[in-house]
Write a structure and sequence with these properties.
Chain lengths: 307, 336
């Protein structure tokens, strides 16, 4: 079977030398075809709907949320779910539904910004390292070995311990270790591509290395990187929630699912909704993102997809 | 050749361990400001005390001297003295470690007991309802935030049913003379049935929390390596010899399938160590993870520094052990 997007050669770029693209580099540019592929299968379609609903909810939070996420109403402390407060209220009388909707902003933003940073740092260093070699590549490799010695959450906890809570601190604490996966991926893929004829041809025609990396190799590894990035997104969201749960992640002023779950622990026996609802919100989003990622992997990168 | 490979691997771990120590050393310098001031907090401490502390921590010396002294102390097993608790950091860690090890062993046991039968069943009947159920459960487990799952377990088993304790390691009314520090072993040594029973009851929910999440990933691995192995020629040979199916599956297939499963489990050790920290916080389990989190809030950075270093070294050692086990177990690694 011909993989989706393994189409004809890009116009203008040395057609006689261009290979059939291994991963179908142009599938990414055609988002419509990708969306159709996701929707073709019910689980993937459902996952996409869930993820889009969360994104819409987070974006429209001020419109959807019936209350301010930080407004305390001590008269309505620990009110059970009711028509006035769909998901009840917490120990300060804040509306759990409104806070859960605003919490989606933190999870999605931290997840996406962390993935973005990891992809940017990892891909640039990996591609440059594979192409330039020499001491910069060796230095990056040693750094990767060192960072690999730390379990992820332990590394993030240690970083947060010394940096202190904060939105950007969480992102940096996660990204400072997260980039190594993309570094290894980009480096390996670039090495594999660098020996191929179309790269050699571009080099023979005198194109500079930077041009070859960006215009020739990058489109050929973009799909694999995208798939891994998507599969990492949910993991980063769980890590952020874990840090916030421990009280060292997102500062208390910002509604985040992890800290909401932590606050609810103290009232777990008398008000189950305070902890369980934000946790369920997190689980459904992570599940949606993971299922969508798996589906997109099947479409974009069939070689690495599991059976 | 095999032994050469193992020695080579071990030698590679040495610079990494040294690098971890250097990073831990510099972590104190990440603090926004003077570490001593920050650790002492807002208390009105005299300038003389601050000066003494700076001197004790060698912070008044040049950086390269600090680093040399740090390694010299490490070589003597000296991790410094906690400013908050006024006790050696090494002693604090040594007290917390047995609880974490007990929890980890129980977690791995739970995970293996769940994952191996699940993976086996689904591999034997691919695409059946069992297989589908195992795959969906495993996906659910892989997306599950462990701390939230722990709270759910508390909600169902401890509050609604009042069946199991929700926090701590043992009933505080039971006193066990500390011998090894491992409560379960100490309970047996003291011949106290009540202590052992209480310890086991306290162990159920925390080990289940992380064990189930861990099993989700492991079951998938057991399944795929079992499916791979079941199509091998030696399995067909075993069947052709007329061996009973259980013998074929258990003795010939499962034993070989567990080798790749072991590698994946090894890769998950990091998740296990990090997950411990979360579970210990949820269940007020007096282990290393809780010590670290408590020390962060107490601004007891020397404890955090030392514990993180220990976590990293353990992780490196565990990966090395998996690597060695893999080399020893798999005869195909001969000559590789």
């Amino acid at each position: 079977m011909i993989p989706a997007g393994a189409g004809p050669v890009r116009a203008g770029a040395m057609p006689f030398l261009y290979p059939v693209r291994r991963h179908g580099g142009r599938a990414l540019s055609s988002l419509g075809r990708l969306a159709a592929g996701v929707a073709r299968e019910p689980v993937g379609g459902a996952a996409a709907v869930v993820v889009l609903a969360y994104i819409a909810g987070a974006a429209l939070a001020p419109v959807i949320a019936p209350y301010s996420p930080t407004a305390a109403d001590l008269a309505a402390r620990l009110a059970p779910p009711s028509p006035a407060h769909w998901f009840g209220t917490d120990a300060l009388g804040r509306d759990v539904f409104s806070r859960t909707i605003y919490g989606a902003r933190v999870s999605l933003l931290v997840g996406l910004l962390t993935v973005g940073l990891c992809v940017a740092i990892g891909t640039v260093l990996g591609m440059a390292g594979a192409y330039v070699r020499g001491w910069p590549d060796a230095a990056a490799a040693r750094t990767v070995e060192l960072l690999q010695a730390f379990p992820y959450l332990i590394f993030a906890v240690a970083m947060m311990a010394f940096l202190g809570p904060g939105f950007w601190n969480v992102i940096w604490a996660l990204a400072l270790k997260g980039w190594i996966e993309f570094y290894r991926l980009a480096r390996g893929e670039t090495l594999a591509q660098a020996g191929r004829e179309y790269v050699e041809a571009a080099r023979a025609m005198g194109y500079p290395a930077s041009w070859i990396l960006v215009s020739e190799i990058l489109p050929n590894i973009a799909n694999t990187v995208t798939v891994v990035a998507l599969l990492r997104l949910g993991y980063f969201m769980v890590l952020e929630a874990s840090l916030s749960f421990l009280g060292i992640g997102i500062p208390p002023g910002i509604p985040a699912w992890g800290s909401m779950i932590s606050e609810g622990r103290n009232v777990l026996f008398i008000a189950w909704w305070v902890s369980t609802i934000p946790g369920l919100a997190l689980l459904v989003l992570v599940l949606g993102v993971n299922l969508l990622g798996e589906r997109i992997r099947e479409i974009l990168d069939p070689h690495t997809a599991s059976e | 050749m095999r032994w050469l490979r193992i020695v080579h691997r071990m030698l590679l771990a040495v610079p990494v361990a040294a690098g971890v120590a250097v990073l831990a050393f510099f972590s104190l310098h990440l603090l926004p400001g003077d570490p001593v001031q920050i650790m002492l907090g807002d208390t009105n401490t005299s300038g003389a005390t601050i000066k003494t502390l700076r001197h004790e921590l060698h912070l008044d010396r040049p950086l390269h001297v600090q680093l040399t002294l740090f390694f010299a102390q490490l070589a003597h097993g000296d991790l410094g003295t906690s400013i908050v608790q006024h006790r050696p950091v090494a002693a604090l860690i040594a007290e917390a470690l047995p609880a974490t090890i007990e929890l980890t062993v129980a977690t791995v046991a739970v995970a293996v007991l769940i994952a191996v039968p699940m993976g086996l069943l689904s591999a034997l009947r691919p695409r059946s309802w069992v297989d589908r159920a195992v795959l969906s459960t495993s996906l659910l487990g892989a997306s599950m935030p462990a701390f939230w799952f722990g709270l759910l377990l508390i909600l169902f088993f401890a509050v609604n049913a009042r069946l199991l304790p929700t926090s701590g390691q043992i009933d505080p009314a039971i006193a066990v003379p500390p011998v090894t520090g491992f409560l379960l072993i100490d309970g047996v040594l003291a011949r106290s049935g009540a202590a052992v029973a209480s310890t086991l009851r306290h162990l159920v929910l925390p080990s289940l929390t992380l064990g189930v999440v861990f099993a989700a990933v492991l079951a998938r691995t057991v399944r795929s390596s079992m499916m791979d192995v079941l199509h091998r020629r030696y399995v067909t040979t075993a069947r052709a010899k007329g061996l009973p199916e259980t013998a074929v599956v258990i003795k010939h297939a499962l034993r070989n399938a567990l080798i790749p499963a072991l590698t994946v489990a090894g890769l998950q050790i990091g998740e296990l160590l990090g997950g411990n920290m979360i579970v210990e916080t949820v269940f007020a389990w007096p282990g290393l993870g809780r010590l670290v989190v408590g020390s962060i809030f107490a601004r007891d950075y020397l404890v955090v520094q030392a514990a993180v270093m220990l976590y990293a070294i353990t992780y490196v050692a565990a990966n090395l052990a998996v690597d060695v086990a893999y080399t020893v177990l798999d005869p195909r690694m001969e000559g590789a």
